[in-house]
Amino acid sequence: MYRKFAFFLIFLFGCTSVPMEYEKARTRPGTSGEIGVSAQSTGWFFAAPDAAAAGVILNGRLDGRLGYSPNGWLSFGLQGGIVRGYSTGTDWKGDYYSADAYPYIKVGIPRLSVKLSAGYSFTFRENGKPSVHDKFPNAYADFLVGIGEGERSTVVVRLGGTPIAGIGVGYVFHAGGLSIAGMVSGIPYIVGGHVGLHIGAAYGF
Description:
By secondary structure, the protein is mainly beta. Helix content is 6%, strand content 65%. The protein has one helix at 2-14; strands at residues 30-46, 53-69, 74-88, 93-109, 112-126, 135-147, 153-160, 167-175, 178-186, 192-204.
């Protein structure tokens, strides 16, 4: 019983891959979006009676976002991606393919905004054991702070996305239509946790 519950938590907390944040805090009226690629690495561990496990999960993402703002302070849209991943865990080992979709709403002033996203992640295939659920809901909030003339860079603080109580801190550098992003995330808890590193690049329109 402990082992099955532990593996379910490992998949939820350690394998979740969510879209990278490439947006600026400032929102311009009209249509906007990005297409990008990212790589993510997550080290996880779980220690409980009859359920000790640990490993590293590696995955790559194709990210996309399409949004619309009617007035420059409110915007809404859809973001998500396609994921190819692999787990090195001794008890959960193998590759998997998944996709996720997250409708979002973003509200803010020019240099400070909050973006709320909620959606689903679908696992197309996984090898190894134990079997895991093929879909689950997820939600997170990104707090964006713009820095520099014309917002040359953006600091991101992410809450959730793992999917219950994770936290991430990221930085996005903007050069014309190109955005380069990085984030460190994690979710410590009493009997285990995980730490993730995410890097990516996107082109905006």
